[in-house]
Design goal:
Layout: E1 13-14, E2 17-20, H1 41-48, E3 57-64, E4 73-79, E5 84-94, E6 114-123, E7 128-133, E8 143-144, E9 148-149, E10 154-159, E11 167-172, E12 179-185, E13 192-195, E14 200-204, E15 210-215, E16 243-246, E17 253-264, E18 270-281, E19 284-293, E20 299-305, E21 320-325, E22 328-333, E23 341-347
Antiparallel strand pairs: 1-12, 2-7, 3-23, 4-5, 5-6, 6-7, 8-10, 9-10, 10-11, 11-12, 13-14, 14-15, 15-16, 17-18, 18-19, 19-20, 21-22, 22-23
């Protein structure tokens, strides 16, 4: 099922190794929906600012996602309108193993492991339409991270599944799941957003401790990015970031992010993204969501989320999406390895304020 076609590494745009379960059904709506930055981003920011620890979260739906036939870990999610979800997922075939005793080899603390990166396309009711495998057997950069949609492409990172390693950045067409490599990075990378106004890419490393900014101009020949390199091999050159910033917050480690605004008037016209994740505090897992300045990593608003699955897994552990429905903030979470239920929750605007301020 995984590998129907393998194209040469030097091919510019790589056709996905894709299984279509409903070939006559479009993978993405036509026309494509607008991204958050051109639709509901500012409304999301405004509604986020009303949240707090006393917010009441109402369950709207539990959508069971059809299994592709193997156990996977969801990493990121993009909602393309009301009837399409794209999930980035990892199929781990050989687990990574710690070197033990604090041993570091080539900058990292564990073996590479083995696996495959997937994009899964679902309908709004959880029917699986397609399974695209983004990596070939033996590729060391097989871990897909968070994903985001810029109105034309879905962006993701494909990295070694270990810290202080390597990664490459790809953009994927929602209409056919073909992928194009943009650049290679000398570090593990997870979440990613694309600032179309400044023509920059922003990636988060292991644990979201750093963000790296890369110049990304699409003014090259035939619209190909100037930084384009063929699908990388182990000896491909690495791109140098134009800036690397330390994350000043230890509230949570961001797992998946969505760019909401290119220049938010609520925050001095700074680019703002929404991120979701967890922090491990001893044996306790703290979940949360945050509005974050894309370039400085300074969180401008943070809210803990205590919602959990029946197995006790925080809902914020991996993918996140967000929308505004009938004036209410709606969150979409898909937590945990082997998780097949997309949880949809809505923030009740009648929730009490943290300090007894009453309704607005």
């Amino acid at each position: 099922m995984r590998f129907l076609t393998i194209l040469p590494l030097a091919t510019c745009v790589l056709a996905a190794n894709i299984t279509r379960f409903a070939p006559s059904v479009l993978l993405a709506p036509s026309p494509l929906p607008l991204p958050h930055t051109r639709s509901d981003g500012e409304a999301i920011i405004s509604l986020f600012e009303t949240l707090g620890r006393t917010t009441i979260w109402r369950s709207i739906a539990n959508i069971t996602l059809q299994s592709p036939g193997y156990t996977y870990e969801p990493e990121g999610i993009v909602r393309l309108g009301s009837d399409r979800y794209v999930v980035s997922a990892g199929d781990w075939t050989v687990p990574t193993t710690s070197y033990g005793n604090g041993l570091i080899i080539n900058g990292t603390d564990r073996t590479a492991g083995e696996g495959y990166a997937h994009f899964l396309v679902y309908t709004g009711n959880g029917t699986l339409l397609a399974d695209a495998t983004l990596t070939a057997p033996g590729e060391i950069e097989y871990h897909t991270g968070g994903i985001d949609f810029d109105g034309e492409y879905i962006w993701t990172t494909l990295a070694q599944y270990r810290p202080n390693s390597t990664a490459h950045i790809v953009r994927v067409k929602p209409t056919d799941l073909s992928q194009e490599t943009v650049l290679r990075v000398l570090d593990h990378q997870g979440a990613i957003v694309h600032n179309t106004a400044k023509q920059t890419l922003h990636t988060l490393n292991w644990g979201s401790r750093n963000t790296s900014t890369f110049a990304y101009s699409q003014s090259g020949q035939h619209g190909r990015p100037k930084h384009y390199k063929p699908k990388p091999s182990n000896d491909s050159p690495f791109a140098s970031p134009i800036a690397t910033v330390r994350n000043p917050s230890y509230f949570i480690d961001y797992q998946d992010c969505k760019l909401l605004s290119l220049a938010s008037p609520s925050y001095n016209y700074r680019p703002i993204m929404l991120c979701s994740g967890i922090a491990t505090l001893g044996t306790y897992y703290l979940g949360g969501i945050a509005l974050v300045d894309v370039e400085t990593m300074v969180p401008v608003a943070e809210v803990p989320i205590t919602l959990r699955t029946d197995a006790g897994v925080p809902l914020t552990v991996n993918p996140v999406e967000v929308s505004v429905v009938n004036g209410k903030l709606r969150m979409y979470w898909l937590p945990g390895i082997g998780e097949t239920v997309l949880r949809v929750f809505e923030a009740d605007p009648r929730s009490p304020f943290e300090f007894g301020g009453g309704p607005q």
